[in-house]
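Much of what follows relies on a compact textual record of a protein's fold. Here is one such record, which you should read through line by line:
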Amino acid sequence: MKVDELRVLEADELGMRLRTARRELYELRFKHAVGQLENSSEISKVRHDIARIMTVLRERDFGIAPLVDADALPAVAVAEPEPEPVDTEPVETEEEEAPKPKRRGRARKESE
């Protein structure tokens, strides 16, 4: 299962695939514990599939759009909004720095 295939799916279908993959992982672990699992690498493959599905779901939660090739996009010109002007003048403060406190330490003894 590839990430690109997952990104085009709806959220409910992703949830269904996630439940299916978790069930499959449960069955593989059970077979492994009983000693009926022939290929133990299937466990890691299913775990990676679960991670991919969860990644796509989290990307959607955060609103992160995947990178899309420019060739796949239709050639449509979109006007970008103009940026708002930003004041670049430095702000001066009239606060004076307080003098540093004197060090209070033990008085040094003069060598005799």
Summary: The chain has a mean pLDDT of 80.
